[in-house]
Write a structure and sequence with these properties.
It contains four helices and five strands; from the N terminus they run E-E-H-E-H-H-E-E-H. 26% of the residues are buried. A hairpin with a 4-residue loop joins strand 1 and strand 2. It has a five-stranded mixed β-sheet. The protein has helices spanning 19-28, 50-54, 57-65, 92-108; strands at residues 2-5, 10-13, 38-41, 70-73, 87-89. By secondary structure, it is an alpha/beta fold. The protein is globular.
Length: 110
């Protein structure tokens, strides 16, 4: 698991780890980054399936309960195949934009 601190978020990528192990590590170490917005970069996982994304649901819900953004970057699935409970975007730029929009909404009290 590779972790890179950015201005208003932490970028976490799986690198060469298996997705199941990566999800477990992310959940296990959630307290290390629960006060930051998170972008999980899965753009290298071109064969990702819906069920694999659902493995991120628990940590995503925990994170959003802390009033922070949790965005996954991956373009392997079409929009109709994506779980509604997760925020999944195709590019890192869109993930950054999503975090900025979330922060604006939180500042306005939405």
């Amino acid at each position: 698991m590779k972790r890179t601190e950015k201005e208003n978020y932490i970028l976490i990528s799986a690198e060469n780890a298996e997705l199941t192990d990566f999800t477990s590590q992310l959940t296990k170490h959630h307290q290390d980054f629960e006060s930051s917005n998170i972008i999980v970069d899965l753009s290298n996982h071109k064969d990702l399936e819906n069920q694999q994304l659902l493995a991120f649901l628990e940590v995503s819900n925990l994170h959003r309960e802390s009033n922070k953004s949790f965005v996954i970057v991956n373009d392997a699935l079409g929009i109709d195949e994506l779980p509604e409970e997760l925020i999944v975007v195709p590019t890192l730029q869109e993930a950054e934009d999503m975090i900025q929009m979330d922060e604006i909404q939180r500042d306005l009290g939405f």
